[in-house]
Amino acid sequence: QVQLVESGGGLVQPGGSLRLSCAASGFNFSSFSMRWYRQAPGKARELVAGINSNGGNTNYADSVKGRFTISRDNAKNTGYLEMNRLQPDDTAVYYCNSYGVIMLYFKDYWGQGTQVTVSS
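The chain above was modelled as a monomer; its predicted structure follows.
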């Protein structure tokens, strides 16, 4: 069945780094775009970064530009979010999302989320 499984979250001090992974299975990941979202307690879900199916185009929220890098390895069916210079405001549950069209139907898949906590 279709699965997106995030990993790599945890507790990190301000200024530190983390690398999130999103392992995809059950669908043709290499044909789908991918996004990372995050949701902090009491706040709406926020789009953090996106990447197209072949990795040639990326985009970022202003709040993470220059600090976060989205990438993917289609041979491994895995997407990544490299997060540097983390700040307490980056604390949230981070979700992987992959979307595309199969047989003219739009498909939108989500992972279960991974917690990132930035605190001293």
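The two ends are 40 Å apart (CA to CA).
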